[in-house]
Structures are given as structure tokens and as C-alpha cells.
Predict the 3D structure of the following.
Amino acid sequence: MIQLKHISKHYPVGFGKNAVLDDIDLTIHAGEFVSIMGPSGSGKSTLLHILGLLEEPSGGEYLFEGEPVHKMSEKKRTQLHRGSIGFVFQAYHLIDELTVYENIETPLLYKNVPSSERKSRVADVLDRFNIVAKKDLFPNQLSGGQQQLVGIARAIVAEPRVIFADEPTGNLHSDQARVIMQLFKHLNETDKITIVQVTHSEQNAAFGHRVIEIRDGKIR
Amino acid sequence: MFRNYIKIAWRNLWKRKLFTAVNILGLTTGLTCVAFLFLCVQQMLSKDRHHQHLERLYLVQTADAGQNVFPLLDVMLRDFPQVENGTRVNSWDAPWIAYKNKELSEAVTYVDTGFFNTFTFPLKYGHAATALKDKSSIVLSSEVAAKLFGRAPPLGKVVSFSDKRRFTVTGVMQPVPPNASLKPAILLWNKHLTDNPDFAPVANWYNNFTGTYVLLRPGASIAAVEQQLQKVVAARFAEGAKDRVLNLLPYKAYAEKHGQLNFDFYVYGLSCIAVFILLLVVINLVNLNMAVSFTRVQEVGIRKVLGSGRRGILAQFFTEVGLTVSISLLLAWGAAFMLLPVLNDQVSGLELTLPMLYSLPFLGMWLLTGALLTLIAGGYPAAYISALKLANAVKGKLQCAPRGMFSRHALIVVQFVIAVVFIAGSLVMRRQVQYMKEGDLRFNKAQVLTVSLDLGFKDTALARSGINHLIAQLQQHTAVQGVSTSQSVPGEFWENYNTYIPGNDINKEVWMRQTYIDNGFVPTFGIRLLEGRNFSPDLATDSNAVLINQAAMKALGWSSIENKTLHSKGGSEAFPVVGVTDDYHYRSLAGAVEPLIHFYGGTSSLKDGFHYLNISIQPKRAAAVVAMLRKTFGGIPAHRLFSYAFADAVFNEQYKRIEGIITLVNIFTTISVLIACAGIFALVALAAQQRTREIGIRKVLGASIAGIVTLLSKDFMKLVGVAILLAAPLAWWIMHRWLQDFAYRITISWWLLAGAGGIVVLIALLTMGLQSVKAALMNPVKALRTE
């Protein structure tokens, strides 16, 4: 599903450059649950951003479902964000001005899903995550764990084939973290959604099939 | 989708209530002004457009003057093949017109039978072709008809004039657009004038007083008509008038050339001000949106990750700005609707009407302005933010934006430059008017009481005996130092000029203003005589003597008036010059004192053409004299009420117009300052909000409140400083140019400009102080916890 060939990423610093990723080769198959681990500054977040099309690599090739991403237009990338990719952030990144319901609905709006279908799909997700009672609340009225539930609900509502999660439990205590990770596992197993997460925690990594260790911009 | 945009836009506006309020308030104020300015311009540009044959309608001018000789039109209608029709427009008298117990005074417009075919004044009652067929016909405006007859059908009603003439109403005009140059109240046939024994000798080939309007045939050559006019001048005009040059002025340019209001000012000046205010408003909108959008970088990032295209982000931003602009457009329209009558009161001659507010051109420009504002104010921040790098945006990181900051700063500077220029302008104008009001007029302005004698006395004989008796009494009164009757008083001199030629040098011509006075005028007004003597009733030879002022003497190039005479151009009578007056200011200090010639009208008494009774009194004893006047005038039946005023009040009436302009400038000054302040107010508030954490940390580390206030306002004050430095020379230059129109003017001292700067600094400090003190007083623990 995802294929990286000789991917590198560096930023200009003064007259030289600072390499963050160096010659990464990586293949992730559909249905996998992969955890990327490594110390701070090792480049794991950058890798996730490149995978999620938030950043462009400085060199190398990236094939997403066989298509070369580095040759895609802005429009095509937006299409991928709409249809194939879901994102979960450490700081949840819900839109403060929107209610829980509207936050979850937003990706469907961008996907031009008709109104009635939108309603039923959002209702399904709310039901499934047990947050129906919270649907008219605003993000700042929820606890961190609840916000992250909404964040995940928002990520899966458009039925993506892959979810990229950037330290999804980083801001949560361990009980909440376990709930979230079980949810990911469930999504992976029953909905066959490919999941790629960045994490610090061994316990969280244990929920996945495979761990990718990254250190100083290289995969170990 | 669109509903979703509106919903989110609404919530965003609501969340930032302060900004939204500032934005809408600023926009509404600015747009209300723009609405009025546009109405004024529209009013000017649509002037006289109601005439059907406007393209073929011309005024026959003498050089630049709008008048012509009376007999000209007859010749043109008879001999000029290119002239299809035409009419003269004359005013001669303003009689009282009565129907049963209702009476009113209106100027009569005397016209020819071609009037209704030349101009377009549709009749509500009657037929244009027959309305002015004979001498007993009268045509009224709808207002006059309504006042006289109410709702009764006016046709066939007989009205009588105060001079006993009687007329049958043959037509009533439909209401004339309020901005029309020609708005006749009462129309009579010109034959009344030509049959009048007083009028016939005046209506020769020399006197220029008739408005001559012609309708040319389609495709007529103006040059050919003008050529033929020149032949008429050579063949028929009187001696002394043969050098006149006649030309045709298109009637659509009439308002521009001969209108009451300064056309250029209203069209170009007001358009400029409108653009200025729009500029201020746009700057604010861009600045505020820019500032707010910096706090929304993350939101935009998330939306993009969720699949929003660039277009979706732009649409979101435009919806928000569009919503603000739409609300303001509505509010401003409402404000304009309510303030329109107030404005009409303030600026005379404007006569805007409410229907103009829902006329198509106005609504068109209203929507266009809204669209333009939205495009500019929404586009700039939206374009910037939608182009952000995704990875950074999601983290809420802003790429350093030095370019954005620079333009934001530049915009603030522009706003304050405009504010300073307006304030300085207003200060200078005020000083200039004060200077003119306090200036030495070279006559006794404080002690002379002037009483109007132009009251429309019903019984002239009774009035004459009563007032002449009063004058005799006043002359004996101990509180009265002098009494005079005159044609004019300073400040109210008529536009009455003629060319005079000195007896000793027939090649010299001097253009002089002329007036009629009695022998009491010079002593009553305390005017100094520089040479010679005042008129004397004891010398029979004084009946044709004249007094000139010093300016006239200079223009004539005389060193003494000994044995000097003057005669008018084309006239043969020699007027001996018996005295020279000081250059007293008979008109506002805006103009220099022009050459003036006084004719002698005999001793003080009530007579035709003498409109003023002037009494020099000790102010403390004025009450007794006024009581006496009141008693006498109370006993004389008249159409108008007895009224009096001191000479300085009469004189200062001349400054009403410029004071009106100052009021307008003050309004715009206030608005520009308000908008500029609203802008920095919100920006400081935003800066405080963005730097909450920094302020919290600084306070924990021991920063004082003053330190925090300085921190927040320092940068803005620098900008205000730059603005003042830029504005000072600009304001000086503009006001220097403006002052050139005044013969007597102040010099712009440095402290006027410094004062304007000081005012702006003070206002800016107050505005920012409020916000920054609030930020500085906040509890630091709270600030740090929220992060």
C-alpha cells in the first residue's frame, strides 16, 4: 500500500543543511498496524508527515497505492486527504468553533456526501464511540480522552484506508490511552483500516503488528 | 456547504465579539459617509437630466456670463435656420399672490411661448401648447398650487397679485426634480414685461440681464450659430457693446458653470473624500482580518488535512468578511436613511431625497462597494493563509511573515496620516474663520443696528410717512449717534458692477462695484474719509456726485481727486468725485477690497431700492431704541416681519458657508480618527491576547504594569510618530494651497501642526492604554494555566 524508496529530508541551516531523514526504504501493506518508535528528534514525526502528505521529501520516491505521490498535483493530494487518509493528532486538533457533531461531519462535507447520508454516517460513528450525548458540546467542554475519541471518530468517518496517528495518546493518562489503543486495534481488525502510529510507549506499540525503530534519520 | 460556511462564519464573528463590533462599527460609519458622498455626486451628475432635448439645449452666453440682451431671442427665432425653438427666462419681481384668504410671495419667471417646447416641464393640469397663450394666463408649480388651492382642481381659478393684476390658472406643472437648475414657481408670459413702461427702456441692445435658451435643430452646427451670433452683435448691438463675444453653452454643463454649489468640489472633492474613507475602512478590515487570521493558522491546517481544498478555505474566509460587510451595508443604509433629513438641513442647496437611496444606480454602487470591500479585505489574508505549509500550519506554527507585518504597519501609518491631515486641516480652517471674524473691518461693526426696510409694505404712503417720522425722531435721540438709509450694508452688497472711465484719461477703464447711499452712511458706519468730503444735502451739485474708495483711486492711478470726474462706459454724464473713503470691508475678508463707487441717493428716508435703515447707537441704550422701532414698525402693515441685527452679525453671515464646510470637515475628521483608532484598538487587543503567556511570564518575573503597557503600545506609537512626520508637510502644503483663496489669511504656524499631532498621539494613547492596562492587570497565574 505504501512504498518509500530512498526517501530523504533535510532542512537548510545556515550554509549547510540538517538531514532529518536519510535514505529511508519502507513498505507498509494494507491491513497492517505499524508503530514508529524512536527518541526525540530522530525524525519519526517528519516521516509520519511525509507519509501523510503534509510534507514533501527532499529526495526519493513515495508510492501510495502504487501511485507516485511526489508527482501529484495539489488537487490530487486533497483528493487523497478526502478519501483515503485519516489523521489523528497528539493535541487532538479539533476545530474549536464547531460542535462534536460538526467536527465529525466536516470531512464528509469536503467529500460532498449528500446531507441524508452524512447524517446517518455521523450518527453511526457517534453511536459506535458512545458519544451521542456529547454531540452538541464544543471541544473545550470535553476531557482530553473524549476529545481524542472525537478526533478518531472524525478520522474514520470518511472511511479512509489508512490512519496516521501522531502520538495519539501522548496527552492522555494510561487508562484513557488503553481505551484509545484498543479502539485502534479494533478498527484495524474489524474495519481493515491500515494504521500507522508514532509513539514513545512500548505498551502502545505492543498493540500493533510491527515496530519500526528510527534513530538519527535511519531505520534500524 | 454554503450554509455550513455561513454558520461557521457566524460563530467565528460571535466568538470574537470585540473585533466584530469594531469591524462593523468602523465599516458602518465609513459606509454611511460613502453613501452620502455618493448621493451628493449622483445628485450633481443627474442634474437637469430631466429635459428631453438636453442634447440640443443651449444657453446663449456673453463670454462667460450667463446673461444676454433681451431682444436677441426674437432675432434668433426669426433669422437663424438652425434654431428650432427658444425661450427667455427673466425675473423681474416677486409679488404677493393671493387666492381668497391665502397669500404667498414667490418670484415670477417670465418666459416666452416656446418655454414648454424648449425645456421639459410636464403639466399635471392644462395643456403646454395653450398654457401661456395670453396675458391673463398663469402657470404654477405644484407646490404653489397646493399652497393656494389645497386639493381643489386649480384650472380656471383666478388669482390676484398685490399690484391688483388678476390671472386665470391655465396650467400646473408636475413636481420638478429637486436638483433642477431651473425650478420656476410661477410662470407668466414675457409680454407682461415688454408692455411694462419701466421695462421697455431697459430691454435694449446693451443691458445684459436675460437668460436666453435655444433648442437647436438635430445636427445643427454650433460654430455656424456662433458665427451668425457674431454678425448680430456687429449689426444690432448698441455702441459700447459691439465688442461682446457670444457663445453657446450646452445646457447640461449649466450646473457646472452657473450652479449655486461648487460643481467641481461636489463631484471631484467628495468622490476623493469617499475614496479616502473607503481606504481607511479597507485598511482596517484588512488589518483586523490579517491579525485574526494569524490565530487561525492551525484551524486552516486541520481543515486542509481533513480534505478541504484551497478553494474551500478561501470560501470560508470570504464568507466571514462578506457577512461582516453585508451587515455593515445594511446598517449603513439604515443610518443613511435616518440621517438624510439631518444632512439636508446642514447643507443648504443639497436637497437629497429618500427615493435616491433605493434608486437603481445607488443600489448598484452599494452592492459593488460591498463586493469590492469583501474581495480586498478577505482576499489578502485568505491568500496568505491558504498558501501556508501544511505541516507547520497543523502545529499552529506561523512562518515568519515580515512582508505581511510591513504592509500592516504601512497601512496603520496611512490611516494616521489621513487622520492628522484632517485634524490639521480642521484646525487651520477654524483659525482662518476666527481671524476673519476678528479682523478690523475698518468700519464701526459693533455699534450699528441695521433694520430691513424690504418688508413688502401694504400701504406705501403710510409706511413712508411713518418711517420718515421715525428717522427724524432718531436723529434727535440722545442715544443715537447717526442714522442712514442705504441700498446695501457691508456683507450684503449686491453683485452690481459697471465699467468707469476717468474724465482725464479716456483710455483707462476700471471695473467697479456700485452702490447707493445717503449722506448719513459714512458717519453712521464710522468710515474714514481719506480725502475730500461726504455728500451734502445742501449742495445741489451733489445730486450726481460720487464717493470712491481707496482701491478705486489706486486702480484709476490718481494721486488726488481734485477736479476729477468719472463716467460710465457708453454713458455721457460726468460724475464729479467729491471724496475718497478708506478701504472698508464691504465683503468678507476672503476677498480683497475691490474698487467701489458710491452714488448719492439723497437724505435718509424710505425710498425705492433702499433696503436698510442703519442706526449707530450706544449698545447700552439699544433697548430703548429697539422698543421705539418696534412700536413704529408695528403700526405699519407689511407682508414680512420687522427684523433687525447688529452690523457685525449681518457681516458674519457671509462666513456661514465656510462654517458649513468646516462642520463637514469636522465630521470627516471625527470619522477618520474614529476608524483609525478602532483599528489600533483591536490590533492592540489582539496583540495582548496573542501574548497572554508572555505577559504572564513577564509579570511573574517582576515586570511592572507600566512596563507591560509600554511593551504592548510601543510599536504602535512608533507608527503614529512616523505618520505625524509624514503628515505634517502634507497638511502644511494642502492648507497652504487652500489659504491662497483668501485675500486676508493666517500663516500656518508650526504649533498648529504640532497640535494636530499632539491630539492624535493623545487619542492613540488613550485607545491603546485601555486595552494594554487591562492586559497588564490580568492575573498571571490564569494566563499561564490556560496554556
